[in-house]
Amino acid sequence: MTDLAPGEFIDRDTLLLVREYPHPPLRVWDALTNAEQVSIWFLHCTRLEARVGGRYAFESDGKSWGGRITAYEPLHLIDFSGAMRFELFAQAAGCRLELRLKRTAAGWNPMSLAGFNGWLGRLRRLVDGVAPEEAERWASDQFPWEGLCLMYERLLGVHVAGGAKVTYRIHFEPNLATLGPEAKMQLGELVRVLRAQPDLRLNIDGFGDDPCSFEESLVLSGRRVDAIVRYLEGAGVAGERIEAGFALGNYHFLVPRDTEAGRAFNRRVELRPIY
Question: Residues 78, 33: contact at Cβ < 8 Å?
């Protein structure tokens, strides 16, 4: 299994990712259950009580989240609140890891799913003994996050959304949060979908500009999300159906940003119906 092997949708609510390692289970298990090691390959782990009912906590971009471990079998299984379930199986040549991810209330996010491919790539390098700086270079310069993100969009369309569009991208002029004619046309299409499916909710993530300072991009991406929320509510979409996700600033670029066309594509807000 390579870093690029995508997950498989077992059902609409479950994605399975599989990796194999030429190491005994104990070596991988330590990387899954030791807070210091988890912080190297995943998110910064501030608490990990490896037992049933034990608490765990992660931090990322100034935000914290956590819960309790709902299942735990040493060297075999650890389940983080049902959201992430890691299972290890011994094999003649090492071990097999199965990671099951569960759909959250905010729906599936192709960016996050691509991110799990990257995190598992970091895990593999950790257990292989790769130096942290080399693993960081791989993650920053070689991991094809953009291609995987778009691939997961296609998989979600087929296996979860029944062929429906899973991401609406609204683009903006530099340093502006004004909705242009093309943006309003796309939002009109989305409004029709939401009217036809009154139980369908919506998640929104905003992005800034490049070049732009990180602080400026956070403000700008927030303004862009606000502009779209106001438009949707003005079109009759109830506010409780709209879940504003993240103002992500000037990172998570989908295409290279060394041309004006690339920078224009990256100036966006992404709206995802929660199928």
Answer: yes
